Amino acid sequence: MVRSDGRPRRHQAVYNRFTGRFRSGAMAGTDVPVSRLWERVGHVAVNWSSLEIRSGIVLMELVGENDESLAQAVVAGQRVENVWDTTEALLVARMGDEDQLVRAFRGWRQRAKSLRRRRNEAIHSGWTFTDGHGGLAATDLMSTRAKRGAREDLFPGGFSQLEALAHDIGDLEDELEVLRSRLTGATPPSS
User: DSSP of 128-182, one letter per residue?
Assistant: First the structure.
C-alpha cells in the first residue's frame, strides 16, 4: 500500500484515543488503560489549577481586600511564578527579610517549584504504553532540557507515581492555606 505522494505506507499500530483501543497493526483490538492515564494526568492538572487559584487569592488578600479591583488587576493574567514573586516581595516589604513567615513562604515556594517541574513533566510528556499489561512510559521531548536529548522514564512508578504527585500538589495547597491563615489571621478551614 502507498500514500498519496507515492511513498510506501509503513504498517503502524494506530491508536484511537477515544475508544481506548488500537484499530490497526499488531495491537488491533487491544485495550489499553488510557482512561486511567487521563484520570491521573487530569488529577495532577486539576490540583495544580487549584493551587494556582489559591496562590492568587493569597496575593489578593495581601494587596488588600478593601480594593478588590486593584487586587484582581495585580493577579489576573499573571504566571504563577510572578504571583509568587509578588507575594514574596510584599511579605518582605511588610515583615522584613528574616521574618519567620517570610522564611516559611520561601520554603513552601521551593517545594512548589519542585512540584511545578514534575507537574510540567506529567502534563507535557509523550506517554506510551509499554506492554499489553498497562505498562507506562513518559518521555520528555519538548522541554528546554530535551534539547540536549530526549529524557525517558520520567515516571517509572507509572500510575501510582502520577497519583502520588497529584496528592503532593493537594498537600502543597493545604500548606499554602495554613500559611495564608497565619498571614491574614484567618482561621483555616477544617479538612
Answer: EE-STT--EEEEB-SSTGGGGS-B--S-TTHHHHHHHHHHHHHHHHHHHHHHHHH
Mapping DSSP onto H, E and C, the string for 37-68 reads: HHHHHHHHHHHHHHHHHHHHHHHHHHHCCCCH
127 touches 138 (CB < 8 A):
yes
pLDDT tens by residue, 106-151: 999 999 999 999 999 888 888 777 655 556 777 777 666 666 666 6
The contacts of residue 89 (CB under 8 Å, 6+ apart) are none
What is this structure's pTM? 0.75
Q: Which residue has the cell 513567615?
A: 101
Q: Measure Cα distances from 159 to 98, 112, 139 in Å.
A: 41, 21, 15
The residue length of the chain stands at 191
Given a contact cutoff of 8 angstroms between Cβ atoms, the answer to whether 58 and 87 are in contact is yes
DSSP annotation of 106: H
Q: What are the sequence ranges of the domains in the chain? A: 1-31, 33-122+158-184
